[in-house]
């Protein structure tokens, strides 16, 4: 039986972007693709595997930053998903999508307040979103950002809402 | 604690998960008139078209009931709820008692009174069994080498999903709709016209402003009489003019309004220890400021989740109800939410509405946002759905948009459009 837990108590590490450090170089996107490839090879992943990046880079003028799924406590995407493909793991807190069951209805896109879910770029009816590189310990975008513009940590109460 | 849930779908499963957040030991019984393990109702059209196989309709894993300590009484129907005895009477003769009861019985298809409709080839389309019956009929036609023709009554979400699936199953499809436009509850005129022509390009024929009065002919060859006097020939027909709350027979009076069971923001009915959630319930619509049925999957799950927590002694509430929808037809996606077409009288009365639109006919895109007193209350994103959830989030946030308003329709609308402080507040939450 699933562990009994109260809502909104799960603490976890999340990715935070430091806008003032970000140069908009998009390396995080490049490494995200490699990390989710079969080959794990930068060149092969981009040339031969059709992988949609799971990070969204926003830039305008000289401000830019990378945005990934926030792995929300209340995961509105998972609560809206019509197939059950999108789930929040009650233990790790990671929100991830089972692409075998996703039908590309985009209900989760309608529900995600961060706009963090992408449609597959290659025309398949599935979504693509950050899974915190669940298998790797640290998200690949964070470990490969040359400017240290991404951090991966659990916020202390006094850090919330501030940078 | 002895929990009983009538209904094994979005709201019922939400409630199981809500109860288990707070109480891992209480006994949970789920009763459903359908035989199936919990399945995704919206996927029945994907099953009909062959896009998704039967095994993948499951909304939760095979061991869901076991994992959550649920006794599932599937294929049995609740005939009567007796609040005075805190008991239920089932079709099988079994009696079940409860400490806390959730009514999550969903909707049932509304069938208008039509003459001669006894024929076996007139279907509804709300259950997996309906899809199975349709598939059997299609197979039968194929075996007889008959080129199948279908008539669908109703151009709402369910009717059009059925139309798309039947086209993919290689039938010819005509949709008859009383209103002058398709999907009139979730699209405005422009979006409806765009989507209609897209559906027509894929072979769906429409007869708008008309309805069916009578079915004639025999079961393999139906003659559909229209109000306008026309007659359509077909091999099967689907009636999809709407669903109505499926309220079980209750001895003492629960307050039933004109549509469903009235609930408060805690999902309680007027009867102690009886909760309701999903398509059977009239919950609060935060945009319209009234209680009404919002017959959509996310709404049902969220209401169920809240009901479950409260049944288990929690203190949850759901006050974020409003219509919201993501649908695609033949690869053209549309996301809509909230008030998408303010009534003319409200616009004329200058009730603070502001409507902004943009779009491109050739690219089949259309975007519209509706603001009320500078707050987001609705939008349509047709064939431009990426990041639409940011808009849904703004509806819930109810915040004055200030200068952000001018960027809502822009293609690169995103978190950089927010003022820095607002953005930080959202992104550095926890
Ligand atoms: C074809 C189709 C496509 C749809 N597509 C979408 C979509 O894309 N997006 C979206 O948001 N929504 C969609 N919907 C709507 C969505 O499916 C419903 O809003 C949702 O299923 C409501 O869930 P519910 O739990 O309230 O009730 P329901 O899903 O209606 O389930 C009711 C349950 O109660 C049981 N029951 C009823 N009466 C009794 C009784 N007397 N005794 C025992 N058991 C009983 C039934 O067996 C069933 O298990 C679609 C619906 C259909 C039919
Ligand atoms: S996809 Fe969006 S809604 Fe879902 S957990 Fe991530 S940020 Fe939250
Ligand atoms: S697109 Fe996939 S993950 Fe998103 S709601 Fe639909 S089925 Fe679920």
SSE layout and pairings?
The complex is a heterodimer of chains A (163) and B (430).
Chain A: E1 14-17, H1 27-35, H2 42-48, E2 56-60, E3 63-67, H3 76-80, E4 86-88, E5 95-97, H4 107-111, E6 118-119, E7 127-128, H5 140-144, E8 150-153
Antiparallel strand pairs in A: 1-8, 2-3, 4-5, 6-7
Helix pairs in contact in A: 1-2
Chain B: E1 2-6, H1 10-22, E2 27-32, H2 44-48, H3 64-67, E3 70-74, E4 78-82, E5 87-90, E6 95-97, E7 100-103, E8 107-109, E9 122-123, H4 128-143, E10 149-153, H5 157-168, E11 172-177, H6 189-201, E12 204-208, E13 212-218, E14 221-226, E15 231-234, E16 236-239, E17 243-245, E18 261-262, E19 274-276, E20 281-285, E21 290-292, H7 297-311, E22 324-329, E23 332-338, H8 344-348, E24 353-360, E25 365-372, E26 375-382, H9 389-397, H10 420-427
Parallel strand pairs in B: 1-2, 1-7, 2-3, 7-19, 9-16, 10-11, 10-16, 11-12, 18-20
Antiparallel strand pairs in B: 4-5, 5-6, 8-17, 13-14, 14-15, 20-21, 22-23, 23-26, 24-25, 25-26
One iron/sulfur cluster is lined by residues 69-72, 75-77, 95, 112, 114, 116-117, 129 of chain A.
């Amino acid at each position: 039986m699933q562990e009994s837990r109260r809502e909104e108590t799960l603490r976890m590490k999340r990715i935070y972007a430091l806008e003032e450090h970000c140069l908009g170089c998009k390396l995080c996107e490049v490494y995200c693709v490699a990390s989710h490839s079969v080959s794990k090879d930068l060149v092969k992943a981009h040339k031969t595997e059709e992988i949609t990046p799971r990070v969204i880079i926003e830039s305008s003028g000289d401000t830019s930053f990378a945005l990934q799924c926030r792995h929300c406590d209340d995961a509105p995407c998972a609560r809206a998903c019509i197939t059950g493909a999108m789930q929040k793991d009650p233990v790790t807190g990671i929100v991830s999508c089972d692409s075998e069951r996703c039908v590309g209805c985009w209900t989760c896109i309608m529900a995600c307040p961060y706009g963090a879910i992408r449609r597959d770029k290659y025309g398949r009816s599935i979504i693509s979103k950050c899974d915190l590189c669940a298998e790797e310990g640290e998200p690949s975008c964070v470990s490969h950002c040359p400017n240290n513009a991404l951090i991966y940590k659990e916020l202390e109460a006094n850090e919330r809402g501030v940078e | 604690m002895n929990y009983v849930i009538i209904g094994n779908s979005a709201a019922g499963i939400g409630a199981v998960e809500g109860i288990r957040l707070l109480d891992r030991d209480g006994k949970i019984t789920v009763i459903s008139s359908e035989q199936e393990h919990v399945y995704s109702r919206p996927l029945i059209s994907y099953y009909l078209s062959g896009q998704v196989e039967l095994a993948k309709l499951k909304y939760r894993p095979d061991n869901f009931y076991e994992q959550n300590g649920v006794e599932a009484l599937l294929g049995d129907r609740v005939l009567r709820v007796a609040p005075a005895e805190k008991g239920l009477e089932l079709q099988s003769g079994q009696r079940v008692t409860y400490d806390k009861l959730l009514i999550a019985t969903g909707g049932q298809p509304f069938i208008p009174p039509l003459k001669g409709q006894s024929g076996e080839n007139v279907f509804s389309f709300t259950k997996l069994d309906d899809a199975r019956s349709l598939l059997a009929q299609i197979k039968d036609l194929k075996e007889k080498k008959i080129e199948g023709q279908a008539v669908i009554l109703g151009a709402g979400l369910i009717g059009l999903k059925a139309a798309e699936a039947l086209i993919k199953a290689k039938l010819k499809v005509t949709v008859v709709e009383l209103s002058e436009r398709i999907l009139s509850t979730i699209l405005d005129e422009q979006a409806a016209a765009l989507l209609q022509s897209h559906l027509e390009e894929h072979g769906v024929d429409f007869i708008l402003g008309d309805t069916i009065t009578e079915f004639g002919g025999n079961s393999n060859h139906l003659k559909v009489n229209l109000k306008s006097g026309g007659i359509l020939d077909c091999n099967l027909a689907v009636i999809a003019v709407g669903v109505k709350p499926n309220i079980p027979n209750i001895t003492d009076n629960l307050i039933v309004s004109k549509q469903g069971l009235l609930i408060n923001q805690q999902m309680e009915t007027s009867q102690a220890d009886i909760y309701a959630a999903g398509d059977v319930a009239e919950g609060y619509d935060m945009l319209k400021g009234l209680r009404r049925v919002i017959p959509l999957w996310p709404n049902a799950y969220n209401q169920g989740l809240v009901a479950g927590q409260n049944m288990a002694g929690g203190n949850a509430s759901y006050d974020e109800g409003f219509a919201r929808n993501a649908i695609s037809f033949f690869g053209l996606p549309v996301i809509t939410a909230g008030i998408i077409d303010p009534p003319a009288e409200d616009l004329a009365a200058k009730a603070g509405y502001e409507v902004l639109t943009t779009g491109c006919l050739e690219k089949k895109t259309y975007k519209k946002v509706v603001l009320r007193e500078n707050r987001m209350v609705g939008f349509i994103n047709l064939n431009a759905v990426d990041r639409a959830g940011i808009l849904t989030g703004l509806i819930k946030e109810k915040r004055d948009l200030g200068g952000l308003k001018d960027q809502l329709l822009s293609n690169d609308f995103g978190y950089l459009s927010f003022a820095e402080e607002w953005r930080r507040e959202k992104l550095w939450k926890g």
